[in-house]
């Protein structure tokens, strides 16, 4: 069966796009908050559930694995069966998982709840696809920039908010609050968000989905456990080898099935693979830094570094990064119209690298760490804000969901790589007190800065396209869809 794009008749009066944008923003913010809300309180959860560190880290690993598997799959299903329908399902998964987590009596059930929450990763590609379908061409770039910036803002905000929520309301409100928000968003999305005017019909083959899930699980599990097992441990090596074999098998199957889950021809497009490479390297820098800067801040000063911060105090030191990421997301689109989105990605990556190098050598006072994080947030905010737009512009409307889903997935893979590498560097040498030596953090932040510099060089390979060129392409596609609807 051939994969053929068609347009479905649309209702005469559609929801105003700003109402749709509000629902999408809340949906994406809720999902990204859930990525990081539990990071600062893992030690408290370990005590609360009377478990060990290895078990409690599965609250992160399980969520990560689930989101990595379902993000591209939900995006592809949205392209085929309707983005609004799958958005509601993704939000429902977030709500159900949050409710289950809030009520979980054991650590095992809490991990299962986190896996259910990971299905909500579908909100990312679906949001970008709906924006492309519903917004006027001149508004698409700004909307995509803001939603893209929420990926970084939400992750940072989760770390900032975890302490105050836990100390004032208790750890279960880390899940009750997202449940209330996502359940409400699911109902509102079902009522007000219009259904997709573009579909890609055809039965989705099961084998590509199984192979995609299998190699992602093997890779991310190996990377997440490598710092604990050791990079040379047979389990680590075995999982990475299995991931490579399954990846090759997945690609071969995708090239032969009638309706691929991920179109390999699309993945080879210059505008797609270069943007994905940048996303991978940005993920290395961003997720690892958010994961380890709180640990640095909370280290007692008696060890020669750190500030002995509480969870709340450590979060406040990171607040400038979240603020700057959000602000740069608001201005990224106007800047891109002047100098081009490719240039914004390159400049943002360089600024992020500068901030990371500042963090490596300039961290003896809390205000210095806050300033360094503000610089990092400025750079990453600029770069993230333009990545999704570049991906959207590089593919057809029918591929928006799956292409942006894979881009988000690749960022997650980058985050897993960065976190694993950073953990290995930081924990290579310990002080008699049991805390890592300062040189581990310094070297780790230098490596993360190098990854962001590499993202800048990768950004130079992205095909040049002006923001106006993107808008013209999207406007022509919109006109084509309207003609198809009129013809139907």
UniProtKB/TrEMBL annotation:
The keyword Transport applies. Its main location: membrane. It comes from the Bacteria. It is found in: Cell membrane. This is MFS transporter. SUPFAM superfamilies: MFS general substrate transporter (SSF103473). GO terms for cellular component: plasma membrane. Keywords: Membrane, Transmembrane, Transmembrane helix, Transport. The chain crosses the membrane at residues 21-43, 55-74, 86-105, 111-131, 143-167, 173-193, 205-224, 236-253, 273-296, 316-336, 343-362, 374-396, 408-431, 443-463. It holds the Pfam family MFS_1.
